[in-house]
Amino acid sequence: MSIVNYMYQTSLVQFLERFDLSMARSEKSPVTTRRISFINGYLTYEIFKYKSRGLYEKHKYMFVLLLALKIDLERMHITHEEFQNFIKGGAALDLNTCPPKPSRWITDLTWLNIVELSSLRQFQYIIQQVITNEKMWKTWFDKDAPEEAMFPLNYGSLDVFRKLLLIRAWCPDRIMVQSKKYIAQSMGTKFAEPMLLNFEAMYFESRALTPMICFLSIGSDPTPYIEQLAKRQEFKCKSISMGQGQEIHARKLLVEAMNEGFWALLQNCHLSQEYMQEILVLFLELEKGGTFNKNFRLWLTTEEHEKFPISLLQMCIKFTNEAPSGIRAGLTRTYISMNQDMLDYSDSKQYIPLIYAISFLHTIVQERRKFGPLGWNIPYEFNSADWLASCLFLQNHLDEADTKKGLSWTTLRYMLGEVHYGGRVTDDFDKKLLNTFCKVWFTDHIFAEDFCFYKGYKIIVYKQVTEYLEHFKSMTPTDVPQVYGLHTNANIT
């Protein structure tokens, strides 16, 4: 993965640590073959979790798909020719040397993919079948979700991977949806679901001389989560934002933290590459023999930088703090960070549904960012601080509201659309869109039985955070673009 992104450096030592862990924790069996199978299964998922935690969202899917393909190649469940067909399609073919297209509605690239697909045994007759059954293929091709529809002719009997090859040839925009089915069947459903970052587990996994480094992206600053974790673990956490002239203060902070046993957080380390090399040398010397408090922890945040010391990256526990993909994952992440006291705060019947509505809005505004300029004209750094500020305002507003007049929707919509979330929005059309979400959702109708954000997405009311987390497990892991107020073709981007 370091070819994809320079920062994705992993050492053999880190892999061997995962291997030893798998040997110790995997299920035992007196039968050698079963014992090996248990170790392999545990190790595979352990490596998946460890690597996925340190990848940007856009690369996590690529990693797990390649993992599934490589394992199935080794198992001989798929052939090398099928693997190459999936990777390359018909890109190497020349249209002039291929059989002529039967109709103009089939694009040149699609036809090249089909011709290349015909070289595989299961698809050897597909060219003639497309020519003789053109209407049937077009009907299937025009479906919004062809991977969910009945496949033409006898192709519905194919296994998930061979259906993926067919989807790859005909509908490249639907590859991700079908490949998630393939990953779930080949590796297990837990590999196809978004990984949620667990700061507490990461902390317990770390040691004093194992720095933890976050790769930054828009709206993914982990500082509030690190400070909350330090408070729960009863440690001090002091931070410094790196930049010109900050090395002196950082050195002093590091010495104090190592001696006293508190946490040091160095932010924006890409701005101080020379000092990163200094930290590497310091830690290597301490490993050989040095005095330090075992409670000491070093947290780093950085953007991508090709001059970041490789050895330091290989020694770190790497993570990203991006919002996970999908409504289910987004809501789960929000409610995991919520304590029970927040749900118990108010006796008002309006309170819990509105907390859920704010959480849903929070997920939507973050998810739209992943559609590029179709989602927002300008990418904004919406983060958990916006959600928390909105929830705290709701608490204060309900406390101060006149019991006879009730909740002021105008005030709530203004604070959400113009202050807490809207305060980040600078584009006029983006501001209009955000306020439209607020006007449509935050009204008296939100408490009606027939209210839904989009069909299938209703207000969920529970009294316990654990009940919400259990409910989210039953939600669909993938969402159509219409949930976010986008056209179905938005996925093509």
Question: Can you tell me the CATH topology of the largest domain?
Answer: Helicase, Ruva Protein, domain 3
Q: Provide the structure class.
A: mainly alpha
The low-confidence runs, each spanning 5 or more residues with pLDDT under 50, are none
SSE sequence, one letter per element: HHHHHHHHHHHEHEHEHEHEHHHHHHH
**Largest sheet at a glance?**
5 strands, parallel
- Helix count, DSSP H or I runs of 4 or more residues: 22
| Proportion of beta-strand residues | under 5%
- Main-sheet strand order equals 2-3-4-1-5
Tally of separate domains? 3
- Helix content range of the residues, please? 40-55%
What is the radius of gyration computed over CA atoms, rounded to a whole number of angstroms?
Answer: 26 Å
Overall shape: it is globular
Q: CATH homologous superfamily name of the largest domain?
A: Region D6 of dynein motor
Q: Kindly state the mean pLDDT as a whole number?
A: 91
Query: End-to-end distance, in Å?
Result: 23 Å
Describe this protein's structure.
A 5-stranded parallel sheet has the order 2-3-4-1-5, sandwiched between helices. It has helices spanning 12-25, 32-53, 57-75, 80-88, 108-117, 126-132, 134-141, 160-170, 175-187, 189-192, 199-205, 223-232, 247-260, 273-289, 310-315, 327-336, 340-344, 351-368, 384-400, 409-420, 428-441, 465-472; strands at residues 212-215, 237-241, 263-267, 297-302, 317-320. It is globular. The two termini are 23 Å apart. The mean pLDDT is 91. The protein has 3 domains: 83-190, no CATH class; 199-320, Rossmann fold (3-Layer(aba) Sandwich); 327-492, Helicase, Ruva Protein, domain 3 (Orthogonal Bundle). Helices cover 52% and strands 5% of the residues. It has 22 helices and 5 strands. Strand 2, helix 13 and strand 3 form a beta-alpha-beta unit. By secondary structure, it is mainly α.
